[in-house]
Amino acid sequence: MPKLENWAVITRDNSPYLAPELRKPCLTGNVFDDDRFVDGTIITTSTITDIDQRKIKTKSGTIYELGKVKPEYQKQFPGHNLNGPNPIKFI
Length: 91
Prior knowledge:
It is built from one helix and six strands; from the N terminus they run ββββββα. By secondary structure, it is mainly β. It has one domain. The protein has a six-stranded mixed beta sheet with strand order 3-2-1-6-5-4.
């Protein structure tokens, strides 16, 4: 199963006319154990469609295991352990 390290949640649609809550979340990070990429390649996934603790399914059907969060991203959420068992709680 591909693993994302140094990950963060982002959106691809930065339209100024779309409300932030309507933007679809994706992940970005360094991917490992994915035959499509050299280990450590920085990727942006397709839209997140399902979350099961630290396993994230995307619109393309790929399931990623989350490794360590990007430290700069963690700083945006003080008091929340994004390296814990349920780091992402929305879709």
